């Protein structure tokens, strides 16, 4: 009888170990900036982090951690909870705007991220979703696609770094664009540029508060450690926009 009980306990313990090994545990809070700086530097000494500015939780499993390096670079790191611990998935010495897609199947989990140096003199970022007018004839049918220009503005006057979720009306447009025949589902904004569907694109225009200051000539770099979906956002020229 005693042997049966012991055997049952062993089986239960082994089963629990396998379960937690496979499933993992829930995310734990991450608030120690000094620890975050050490982890970034240990993973890539080129980062040379002197200060972690903040630890921003986008959801329970994703962290945005902006930092300043010893030589004055304003960079970004991207963290993901992976079963038992926080893992750094990407480090970028350049804080120019990017889009972080947290989940491929969820349009609402797309975030603008940035961390701009004070020398850049940028006091506002205006993000745009644009589709040019298009008209033509296909398979004997005439078609016309009207101009789309949607704007999302964020202020940098109080804080040089930040995150901003993609606007709901942009998400609605994503959901309304059908995939090409045979692919199923809908296209995300960043897939449009790869397939040519509807000719949408995202860019930004920085508003400056003065003349740019001279900066050091350190080269920018980025490193990726595992699965993550980041997209660079490029600046727009004024002639690419339309105004009332």
Beta-strand fraction estimate:
35-45%
Oligomer: single chain
Structural class given helices, strands, pairing? Answer: alpha+beta
Spatial shape = globular
Q: First CA to last CA: what distance?
A: 85 Å
Task: Please give a structural write-up.
The chain has about 240 residues and is α+β, with helices and mostly antiparallel strands. About 20% of the residues lie in helices and about 40% in strands. It has one domain. It is built from 4 helices and 16 strands. The longest helix is centred in the N-terminal third of the chain and has 22 residues, at about 1-25. The model is unreliable at about 15-20, about 180-185 and about 190-195 (pLDDT under 50).
How would you concisely characterize the structure shown here?
This protein is of the alpha+beta class and 244 residues long. Helix content is 20%, strand content 38%.
Topology:
Layout: H1 2-23, H2 33-43, E1 49-52, E2 56-59, E3 62-69, E4 74-82, E5 85-92, E6 98-101, E7 110-115, E8 122-131, E9 134-138, E10 141-145, E11 148-155, E12 161-165, H3 168-176, H4 189-195, E13 200-208, E14 222-224, E15 230-232, E16 234-235
Parallel strand pairs: 13-16
Antiparallel strand pairs: 1-3, 2-3, 3-4, 4-5, 5-14, 6-7, 6-15, 7-12, 8-11, 8-13, 9-10
Task: From the structure above, extract its key features.
4 helices; six-stranded antiparallel beta sheet; alpha+beta; single chain; four-stranded antiparallel beta sheet
